[in-house]
Amino acid sequence: MTAAFVTLLVLAPAPSAQAHTGLTSSDPADDSTVQTTPDRIQLQFTDPMSKEFSKVSLTIGTSPQQVLVLDPSTSGPTVSVDLSDARLPTAPPGSGDVAWDVAYRVISADGHPVDGNVRFRAPLPPTPSSRDASSPASETPKGESSSTVDEDGDDFRTTAILIGVGVSLFFLLPLSVLLWAIGRDRRRQRATSE
């Protein structure tokens, strides 16, 4: 009986491991070359994503390198960025394609963080002389935040510093008050014992 039970355990299939949240595909695809300037970037994940915690930045490999912080929209497991109104660098027609790097940091609806990059090559939009010049230059485009990030594309560094300072103050302030109160009590005890 024991041998049959052990054999059954060995031969029985193991339960499948729970899949981790991750990127399943993108448009444009990672490591691809596209013939036209994309007007939208879509990232498809295994789980629904939270709009509040989705961040997407775009680095376009021109000289000097430009980094744009974009405002993504979410619909279930899809995170997308509309580039039609973003302030992309331009180039004369026929200039060839350049490297595009889409950095994302998203959190699924059930709390799993996912970050990574999608890289592809695509041409830049044509120079303003060949584009529609009717839109005002002072307007912030719909798909782009008015802030930019440093050249490394690390817009999370500032947030981490602010959180670190806040946590430090949260613990150090009560500790300071406690140490002050202990010192005060000791001074009182010395004064009454003398």
Automatic annotation (TrEMBL):
Annotated signal sequence range: 1-19
GO cellular component term of the entry, any: plasma membrane
Subcellular location: Cell envelope
Keywords assigned by UniProt, alphabetized: Copper, Membrane, Metal-binding, Signal, Transmembrane, Transmembrane helix
GO BP annotations listed: copper ion transport; response to copper ion
UniProt KW Isomerase keyword: no
CopC domain ranges (all copies): 20-121
Gene3D superfamilies xrefs: 2.60.40.1220
Biased composition regions of type Polar residues, renumbered to the chain: 69-78, 129-148
Gene Ontology molecular functions: copper ion binding
Region (Disordered), start-end ranges: 69-92, 115-153
Transmembrane stretches, start-end: 160-182
Entries under InterPro entries matching the protein: CopC/D, CopC_dom, Cu-Rt/internalin_Ig-like, Ig_E-set
Protein name per UniProt: Copper resistance protein CopC
The organism of origin for this protein: Aeromicrobium phoceense
